[in-house]
Structures are given as C-alpha cells and as structure tokens.
Known about the structure:
By secondary structure, the chain is α+β, with helices and mostly antiparallel strands. It has 3 helices and 9 strands, in the order ββββββαβαββα.
Amino acid sequence: MTVKRNAVTGASIFLDREIIPRQYRVHLEDDVMREKICDICGHGVNPEDVVIHRIIPEEVARQAGIFDFRAATLCPDCSNEIHSWYGKRVYSMSYKNGAKRFILRSPAQMVKEYEATYRAFVEYKKRRRAKSQHLDR
Ligand SMILES: [Zn+2]
C-alpha cells in the first residue's frame, strides 16, 4: 500500500481519500450554536454569520488535481476583504522575461498564488491588529 501525500498540505491520501490534518478540519456539528471567533481578526462572530473560507478555491484545487480542504472560519468583514485581495492580487498570468511576454500560470502555480495571498492577508491583519491594540492602551 502506498501512501500518497498532498503536495501542499502534507496530508496523507489513503485510497484517494485525504486524511485531513486536525488543524484544518472544520468542526461544524459539535458547536453550531456557540459564538465563533474569526481566525483572522479574532473578533467574535454569530454562528449564522460565519463564513467558511476555502484558502484554495475548490475550482483551483480541482484544476491542480489536489485535495485541499484547508479552510478558515471568518467574520463577514474578513471574508469580503480576502475576496477582494484574491481579486486584486492573484494573477493568472506571469511575465516571462526570457520570452518577453505574459504566460498563463499553471494550476499548481495558482495554488501557490492563493496561498501566498492568504498568508500576506493574515500578516497584514495581524499588523493592523497589533497597531490598534497599541492605540487602545
Ligand atoms: Zn474577521
């Protein structure tokens, strides 16, 4: 039996079903009613307003041929913001210096683009949060 691994998450894929690492699992059933905390800004969110944000959009993961269920629990504000970041910062084309033209990124490159953009967004929000906490004091 060979154990394949998801190239991005490192999760093992068993019989083509990915064993999702614990930290990426989204627990919906056990605490539906409790207030959630936004993974990015740390604010409390009503359960009905929570947005489950797929870090790699389903379509992109499918095109790249990977199982990638990493998701974040977000408040509506962070959800809107990350979507606009994805819209502005994830490019499907890259400039090839040698060829002096734009070429279409591969699905695997797109996965990296989304990951990098998500990480940059988290860092950005963290910095803003630290700054506003500083001002509150
Ligand atoms: Zn938030």
